């Protein structure tokens, strides 16, 4: 007999391969059976509509449906959906009427079903499904896959705010198992929709954790709240495989309709809230909530939702108030029972934060605790502001509201405690008849004692204070206890822990009905910080007075030195063919001793050295720097060098031989025989020449600040002075203003210099008098007038 080898199991045509093909075929058959069942359900509904409207038998209705479908060129299922839409006129029918094809894909796929057919199929499957898992699979298969979605998840909101995965489709079993429970503190895409109580669309999920985010990285997510009557039962999360812009309105309305289909599977019928039309129908479980409210010592309300005709939350009804609740308007508890909240407290909750908290807690189930919530209510048409600590929790189908109105006495006591703590004050009362002593907690802290050690009597003050304060304490006790007058005393307290504190006591006697002294009450205050602050201030005042005296003395000596070197006025220099006058005006404030200087001297060569300079800054450093530069320039001029060379050498002196002194200067050498003057400047204002034709400043030459750098390039200029000309050299204190450019101030100087005067000294005095300088700076001014031949 011929034998054959067994067929390997791992070949494509082997046993495993045949089983896989069989399993896939059976799955397809199951899906087709589900789809056929959903379609048959829609056809049966349409047949029922025809039977009701045409008054025919079921067989006639089926035949009529087939004939109408053949005449319209559509399938019987599509015609059945149209008949249902026309009869229902519900949200699905509205969506189908104005549906617009989505445009984010290349175009509709061939054979794509109408939205009405997809939504009705999903609705039929959801209503027939026994659990949320079947609803999720039906939504994905009938409605979401044609829109391009890859997966769907339906979350249930637990009482503690956590999320539980109730149904899913498109995700692997391992992924679903990892996301079976999401704690309240985890921020996910579904949590964002729950917090916002609306629809959330993320164009791309990158850093927000969510189910399936690793499978479709960067894909879009749409989450919608699922609930009825203002209460959120869960969240519908739709996963798109790629980044996606927000949906057009038609697609968004379809997704909202799908969320409504999920609501009936998540809502427990036993938890149904009140219905609107015929008054409240209380949840049986609310009776347990009433028992909880009665067991609470604080004032409590039990609220149940009040829905309008459309099934939406319109208000809350006061189902019960416990015995401790007191109405701010003084109404009895019977007047509040079964009343609507917005009608009872319109100003307290209407449109305010409190009502928003009620809606949020009822929708999400997460409790809220708010301290010191301010609300307004009306008492006899007068607005009354109340402050209350509010706690809101959702239990069963209602809300438990604990409403604790702040007591004024408690609030004032708390304010007093804070005031004592901030002011480091402790109160006391000593009963002189019974010997009972009462201290506040702050006073124990001031003394460094514990309540177990007990308070201390006023008679023990001297033993606890510094010995030098015993006389003041005795006088305080005599005034208080013997003369019965209020008294105060400050002393140094030596505590048991070795800490010394400065304490002030303010006390008053308390007399009884028989004018007998019965008690003493008062307050201790720790003034240690104030005492040491006063000590520090006194020491600071002493140091400031000493420093001020030193500054005055130093400035007086500096001013004397400056006047000795640069007197405010001096006799004119006696030179044939010239009239020379100088003026020096120190700063108006003695503390602003400056470094302005001038010099006018006849050199051995017969030339006349004329110079004016200004050392930067004020005080002793500026004055000593001025002396160094003035004497250095006079000595350098003996070499016979020109003005440019003199200023270059003077720059080396300022740079090397002084402590960071900078200065400006203008230097001129005048030859009486030729009446020619060579001059140069180092950052200084140019000289001014006044003659019969007016007054004009000499052209600016190049020359930087003295002491600013090691090398200094100075440009030298030459000008001829005629008989009758007057040369003016000055420092910036003559013309400088804070709000005016230097050339404008110079124009004012030139205008004043043209005013006719009798003598050169009078001209300089006028320039000092009518100058517009406002910097309170020193001023040096040299005037040189060329004498005509007949005057020589």
UniProtKB/TrEMBL annotation:
Give the organism, scientific name: Actinospica durhamensis
| This protein's record includes keyword Transcription regulation | yes
Please name the InterPro entries in this protein's record. ANTAR (IPR005561), Bact_Sigma-Reg (IPR052016), CheY-like_superfamily (IPR011006), GAF (IPR003018), GAF-like_dom_sf (IPR029016), PAS-assoc_C (IPR000700), PAS-like_dom_sf (IPR035965), PAS_fold_3 (IPR013655)
A Pfam family the protein falls into: ANTAR
What are the residue boundaries of the ANTAR domain, all occurrences included? 23-84
Put simply, this protein is called: SpoIIE family protein phosphatase
Q: Which residues form the PAC domain?
A: 487-539
> One GO molecular function term?
RNA binding
For this UniProt record, give its keywords in alphabetical order, as a comma-separated list.
Hydrolase, Kinase, Transcription, Transcription regulation, Transferase
